[in-house]
Amino acid sequence: MSWGFLRDLLSGVNKYSTGIGRIWVAVVFVFRLLVYIVAAENIWKYEHDEFECNIKQPGCENVCFDHFFPVSHIRLWALQLIMVSTPSLLVVFHVAYRENREKHHNQKLHKSPGEIDGGLLCTYLISLILKTGFETVFLVLFYKLYNGFKVPRLVKCDIRPCPNTVDCYISKPTEKMIFLYFLVATSCLCIVLNLSELSYLIFKYSIKCYLKRYSKKCQ
C-alpha cells in the first residue's frame, strides 16, 4: 500500500501539536514508518516460504506455520501504525468543521487558528487517549500471540496432520528479534510521549483556568 496518506494526515495535524506532539510525529515517521518500509517489510517478505519443517507430510508445514504465526509480525505492525495514526483524523475533522463555520459566518471565530483551545482541546485530548490505548493493546496482543517478545530458532509442532512431533525452523530469527525489540521500544517511547503531552496539556489549561478565575475574583 501507499503510506503517503498517513504521512499527509500526520503532517496536517502537526501544526496543532505541542512540541511533544511534534516529537511523536517525528518518531512515527523516522523510527517506525521509514524503518517499516525500508527494512522490516523485506525481512518478513518470504517468511512462509522460508519456514521449514523436517518432514514431507502434506499440510503439516502449513498448519504448523499458522499455529506459531497466526498473524504475521509485519502485518500486525502495519495495522498498529494505521490504528495509532487514525485518532489524528478526529483533530483533522474538528479543524475542518471549525474552518467551515468561519467560512459560513464570514468571520474569524478564533484568534489563533493553530491554537488548541475549547472543543479542539477536548478532541485533541481524546485522540491522545485513543493513541495511547491502541499502542498498549497492540503491545499486549504481540505478547499474547507470540508468547513474549522473542523469535525462536526452533519450534516443535505436533498438530494434525503431522504424524508426530516435528522440528520446524524459522528463517533469520535473530534479525527478526532485533526488529521486534525495536518495535516494542518505539511503541513504549510513543506511549511515554503521548502520556507526557496529555499531562502537559491538562496541567497547562488547568493553570490557565485557575488564573482566569483568580483574576475575576480580584476584579
From TrEMBL:
Main localization (coarse): other
Keywords in alphabetical order: Cell junction, Cell membrane, Gap junction, Membrane, Transmembrane, Transmembrane helix
Transmembrane residue ranges: 21-39, 77-97, 118-143, 178-203
Keyword Cell inner membrane: no
GO BP of this protein: cell-cell signaling
Assembly notes: A connexon is composed of a hexamer of connexins.
Function comment: One gap junction consists of a cluster of closely packed pairs of transmembrane channels, the connexons, through which materials of low MW diffuse from one cell to a neighboring cell.
Protein name per the record: Gap junction protein
Protein species of origin: Corythaixoides concolor (Grey go-away-bird)
Lineage: Eukaryota, Metazoa, Chordata, Craniata, Vertebrata
